[in-house]
């Protein structure tokens, strides 16, 4: 029996892994098993206990592994990584997986990747090669790429960057983003059903997420107050806000959002909406607001504008429907007014997403199955590109 593991630690990354899990589960047999390992904020009451969303999806969970998620300081993050490394090294040593599928760039995924390397477990990495210059995620993502054997990038630019890191082009595949798979298959709620699920009746609404900008020393309170003041400036629009992730500063953001939601009538805050409800609400929104990657990747596929605040996503491949702005109230207001302009909204209708055609999970699954019968040599050669200096 050959076993492949998929590890998920947050609500957002589970949404991207979900189509791959489904495809690989459909391929299970007497000789192959796909094991789902659930950890991180999925198992935290503070972050919504989103393991329940996985259970509600009917997913078999093979391992639930608790790791610390307190993230108020840099020391907290480092302690979390140390414990995660120890815990997952034990798991990988015991289970002897043929490979482990990891997605993205979170700090706990870096620790899990190190545990895989130490136990000689091949890593198949999703979403490598992307650039987000405003967050520590950027260097974490590239580090995981260097530890990985197979690479499933979301676009051609990212594929070239992974090869530039010294990875053999024969092991780097641009299959697009599974977010587009979700856009086409999961966002199936009607507008009325989606709105009723969050208790709003106003069809003029926006979907928002604001994460910490981890490489900036800016005052979190000041940034979120600018964001909240912007919401107050548009009383005719309802703002559906999902809480921040477990990055350093995320807990403070969430506390400020909860405090504001009790006072601002057109602001509705949720710990987690789940993939289906989140994408269905996005589908009918006037625009998406914040600094999450979902505004860059998923939103253009719905042909609606994104107001992308600040530098967190700087460097990521963008469609023409993205409006970038500074983090101050005046800049955000101007960007929202542009997003509401009929001419710009009409232009968004004619855009094509640069992140794939909705068959990403199918392609990834086939490649993973194909490699079950291949001999994997972890002694990778550095793929040299000719560089003039």
Q: Topology, please?
A:
Blueprint: E1 2-8, H1 11-26, E2 32-39, H2 51-56, E3 63-65, H3 74-95, E4 99-103, H4 107-118, E5 123-126, H5 137-147, E6 150-153, H6 156-164, E7 172-174, H7 178-185, H8 191-197, E8 205-209, H9 220-232, E9 238-242, H10 250-261, E10 267-270, H11 275-284, E11 287-290, H12 293-297, E12 306-309, E13 322-325, H13 329-339, H14 342-348, H15 360-370
Parallel strand pairs: 1-2, 1-4, 2-3, 4-5, 5-6, 6-7, 8-9, 8-11, 9-10, 11-12, 12-13
Helix pairs in contact: 1-7, 1-15, 3-4, 4-5, 8-11, 9-10, 9-13
The CATH homologous superfamily name of the largest domain equals Glycogen Phosphorylase B
- Strand percentage: 15-25%
Tell me the helix content.
Answer: 40-55%
Count of DSSP H/I helices: 15
Please list the strands of the largest sheet in the order they lie side by side: 3-2-1-4-5-6-7
* H and E order: EHEHEHEHEHEHEHHEHEHEHEHEEHHH
Overall shape: globular
Q: Give the beta-strand count.
A: 13
In CATH, what is the class of the largest domain? Alpha Beta
What's the number of structural domains? 2
Q: Any idea of the CATH topology of the largest domain? A: Rossmann fold
How far apart lie the N and C ends?
50 Å
User: What's the CATH architecture name of the largest domain?
Assistant: 3-Layer(aba) Sandwich
Radius of gyration (CA) equals 20 Å
Unreliably modeled segments: none
What's the average pLDDT? 95
Largest sheet: 7 strands, parallel
Helix-strand makeup class: alpha/beta
